[in-house]
Amino acid sequence: MSLHTSWSDTIIALATPPGVGAIGVIRLSGTKTFPIVNQLFPSRDLEMQPSHTLQVGYLRKGGEILDEVVLSLFRGPKSYTGEDVIEISCHGSPYVQQQVIAACTELGARLAYPGEFTQRAFLNGKMDLAQAEAVADLIAADSEAARQTALKQLRGGFSQDLSRLREQLIHFAALIELELDFSQEDVEFADRSQLSTLINELSVATARLAQSFKLGNVIRNGVNVAIVGKPNAGKSTLLNALLNEERAIVSEIAGTTRDTIEETINIAGILFRFQDTAGIREHTSDKIEQIGIRKAYEKIETASVLLFLTDVREAEPDEVKQRVKELTEGRSVKPVLLFTKADLLTEEALIKWRHIQKELEEEWPVLLLAAKPGATEVADTVDDLRETLYKIVAGEGVDTEHTIVTNARHHAALLQVQECLREVREGLDNNIAGDFLALDIRRCLHYLGEITGQVEVDRDILGTIFGKFCIGK
Question: DSSP labels for 264-291?
Answer without folding.
Answer: EEEETTEEEEEEEPPPP-S----HHHHH
